[in-house]
Amino acid sequence: MRVPSRSPGRQPGSAVASTTHARRLPPGAPHPDAGPDLAAYRAAVAELLVEVGALTDAPSAGARQVLLDQRLREPAIAAVLDATPQGLVGARETLLLEMARYRPNSRTSAQDLTALVRIYLLSRVDVLWWRDSPTFRTDDQVRGTVDLVDLEWLRRRGLLEFRYREQPATVLGRGLRAFGRRVRPDATPRTAGLLFPRARREVIAFLNDLAREFAAATRPGTPPLWVTSLARSAEHQHRLRRLGYAAMVPSGHCLGWAADVELEWFERFGARAALAGLLLARQDAGEINVVDEGQAWHLCLAPGARRRFRRAYEAEMGV
Q1: Residue 294 pLDDT > 80
Q2: Contacts of 62 (CB under 8 A, 6+ apart)
Q3: How many Cα atoms within 13 Å fall on the side-chain side of residue 13?
Q4: Distances (CA, A) of 244 to 35, 110, 147, 247, 268
Q5: How far apart are CA 149 and CA 197, in angstroms?
Q6: Structure-derived torsion over alpha carbons of residues 134, 137, 139, 142, reported in degrees to the nearest 10
Q7: Is residue 59 predicted with pLDDT exceeding 70?
């Protein structure tokens, strides 16, 4: 069964209802399931990043540690970190270790130490929210769990409003992908693609809803929302870390509640700012957590939004 959508964007077949228009909280209002004050946490992190940005050179390592020791204990930050599985002390030690190991490279979304600190601290909201959710530890668990749905099955039936592509599985496939990039370098986002084209039902419904809103907010000819990452295993997360990516541990991706969406590529269509605005508005409404990772932005569905997006998925898919 399909139900009407609130946005007139690209909609193959019948439209689907937005699940959020009437239920969004006013900007800045605390979500009932949020726990600590996340607006205060994000503001405190933003202030911390300004100070970290002035201490990114190698001789400032000692000063950075003193700064973090002081600022991470401030109530607005400590309340969030202390509620994560690692606790405040564990989160502090992990962050200091990440900073000590940091080496800039072409793969990582953390282009400098300030970006690394931002990605780590803001992504802790994910693990605060979903601290009781089990981790997908192995690739086989991601492939075999009934908690995740095969995107290809849905895509072939025209039930997805967003785009993605899978990682090539063979040397030939990787060669063809590289050739395509040389011939048409800007035809698609520069992303490896999904190793696991699988996602939670609630995340699919959210991304469909966001894609419809994005289509309505942009001019004709703008490509649909592009998803660059979804559920991952902890096994794959560590594989990415060895390759130099800023893959944080623990991660909302390994819990199945996070996704990454392309932003940089949409600059050439004049749509990057629109998408960023939509993501931040939904964060203000308490639906998601957002982390600016440069080319792509990370998002994680909030527990308080889980039920309505599950209902949206069931209505959308006729189940």
Answers
A1: yes
A2: none
A3: 12
A4: 33, 10, 29, 8, 27
A5: 8
A6: 0
A7: yes
Question: Cis omega (within 30 of 0) on the bond before 4?
Answer: no
| Interatomic CA distance for residues 307 and 313, integer angstroms | 10
Up-side HSE of residue 284: CA atoms within 13 Å toward CB?
A: 9
How far apart CA 233 and CA 141 sit, in angstroms, is: 8
**Which one, of 293, 278, 232, lies nearest residue 7 by Cα?**
278
| CA pair distance 82, 286, nearest whole angstrom | 21
* Rg of the chain, C-alpha, whole Å: 20
The whole-number average pLDDT for the span 29-48 is: 80
| Per-residue model confidence (pLDDT) at position 106 | 85
What is the pTM for the complete model shown? 0.84
What would the pLDDT profile of 234-254 be if each residue is shown by its tens digit?
999 999 999 999 899 899 999
| pLDDT of res. 29 | 42
Task: Output the six-digit token pair for 147.
Answer: 């908690």
Please report the pLDDT score of residue 173 as a whole number: 54
Residue 196, both tokens = 């696991």
pLDDT confidence tier of residue 187, bands split at 50, 70 and 90: low
CA distance 119 to 296: 12
Query: H-type helices in the chain, by residue range?
Result: 38-53, 61-71, 75-82, 87-101, 113-129, 139-144, 151-156, 171-183, 201-217, 234-242, 272-284, 306-317
What pLDDT does residue 192 have?
74
Question: How many other CB atoms are found less than 10 A from the CB of residue 218?
Answer: 21
What does the buried/exposed string (b/e) look like for 85-104 if buried means 16 or more CB atoms within 10 Å of the residue's CB?
ebebeebbebbbebbeebee
